[in-house]
Amino acid sequence: MNNTQTTLRRFTLGACALALGLGMLQTQADDGALYGPKAPKGSAFVRAYNASSAELDVSVGQTQLKQISPLGSSDFKFLPAGSYQAQVGNAQMAVDLEAARYYTLVSQTGAEPRLVEEPPFTSRQKALLRVQNLTDSTLSLKTADGKTAVVADVKPDGRGDREINPVKVGLALFEGERKVADLKPVTLERGEVVSLFVTGGQGKLSPVWVKRPIDG
């Protein structure tokens, strides 16, 4: 092999290696855009749900959850487990966040903000329906005709879960045998948690499906 061929071969191999390296970097960048930064071990996860009628800003320590629309939620953000001062709109509250646990800060008009735990869901085959009952009534999630209970008898300030197959469902909220509200149909994906947050009281209940927002 002459010097010209040797030089050309080295140049070709170097170009291939550079292209491969750039490809790997691009793949890593795409993965980062898709999944976001990986939470360090010992992190807690927190989001905010805005049950009020005005836009909401929330902070937990230095973590900011900004411009949350009425009846909307932020995505979860991670931060080191520990004790924090939370600012929820104009209200302040102390919160204790444990490692590897998920929480939702709930803001309601005319009530103090609440910290609600959201146990993680690890199935990749099923979806999870969750009822977060922040009212003074015992409530059930049923089929619209009331014949089949999906998540039954969730006590005041309690939580109820039900794993189901991925599907688009139309359900209703009941207090005993009385229908409180027909709910908007919700589409459930594999591995997804969809929470029904029910706020209010004294017969004026506000049930809202809360899903993780989609960027873009």
TrEMBL record:
A Pfam family this chain is assigned to: AlgF
Assigned protein family: Belongs to the AlgF family.
GO cellular component, one term: periplasmic space
Pathway: Glycan biosynthesis; alginate biosynthesis
Organism field: Ectopseudomonas toyotomiensis
Subcellular location: Periplasm
GO terms classed as biological process: alginic acid biosynthetic process
Signal sequence extent: 1-29
Keyword Ligase belongs to the record: no
Keyword list, A-Z: Alginate biosynthesis, Periplasm, Signal
Highest taxon, organism lineage: Bacteria
Protein name: Alginate biosynthesis protein AlgF
